[in-house]
Amino acid sequence: MQNAMDIEAIGMQVRNDNAFLKALKEECSKVIVGQEEMIDKLIIGLLTKGHVLLEGLPGLAKTLSIKTLATAVGGKFSRIQFTPDLLPADIIGTMIYNPGINEFSVRKGPVFANFILADEINRAPAKVQSALLESMQEKQVTIGKESFKLEEPFLVLATQNPIEQEGTYPLPEAQLDRFMLKVKIEYPEREEERQIMRRNLGIDASASVSQVASIEEIIKARQTVLKIYMDEKIESYILDLVNATRSKEGEIGMLINYGASPRATINLALASRAIAFMRGRGYVIPDDVRVIAKDILRHRMGLSYEAEAENITQDNIVDKILQTVVVP
Asked: Which of the residues 46, 128, 199, 207 could staple to 124 if both were Cys, CB 3.0 to 4.6 A apart?
């Protein structure tokens, strides 16, 4: 058990190590209008080594946000457009024969970067999705007989369009579980859209993005996030929320076919610490857990026939769980 002095010391370290976040958000806002919530959740992924799945309609700045964040932290950025004819070798790389020296050499694929944008990930067949998701889990790639470690930070940010189902290969539940967060992107507000229109017409041109943080700062911040104090009552609250998705009793139990895995518990604890870090605290409070619960849980629950028949979504169920489980 940590005492008040220890927690205060952690708080001071947090406020020292999170100083770069303000400049990072300001730099992103030079290019991205609105979408502060999406930027925050991308930063949570960055602070916790968590991969992020962005779901939203075309034109909502998903790709631009990811590229902007990569530039602002000085990371290597790689974009992969997923298509039905994509092959695993197009992602991880392959062996190329060199006739001059009569040998095979390794040609590394676009996965060898810090920020991987997997654009429209559900448009590629399962074998290609598996090749990417294996590198997400193992943080390494095997080409021929050689294995290559991927550089840190290594973050996969995937996008998918929620309305187009034709010609897509939906991610299986086990692969969805590899993503720490599934973030739903909404339309911008009216005045934000006016600003977007002006920037794109050159009336109010946006500035270019500069590097305002370093990879070293990100890695140091990750270490500090893990030190943030979490009381046993908060741990129990997280366990209660996740276990509620597995219940087979009552109203919630009738709506769920299967519940969230232990990865949800781990990621909810990690993301809550990251939120406390971003808010300048050395300890986690219940609101940190509640604010990120939907993004952690929505893609880890299967709806029952009754839920689908009544048009009840995973978000509706998480709302019910948050209302039901007692807050410490």
From this structure: 128
DSSP string across 42-64: HHHHHHHT--EEEE--TTSSHHH
Q: Tell me whether the CATH fold assigned to 23-227 matches the one assigned to 228-328.
A: no
Q: Alpha carbon of 275 to those of 36, 143, 271, 286: distances in Å?
A: 14, 37, 6, 11
CATH number of 228-328: 1.10.8.80
Structural domain boundaries in the chain = 23-227, 228-328
pLDDT above 90 covers a percentage of the chain that reads 26
23-227: in CATH 3.40.50.300: yes
3-state helix, strand, coil in the chain (%, to 5): 50, 15, 35
**Dist. CA 236–CA 269, nearest whole Å:** 11
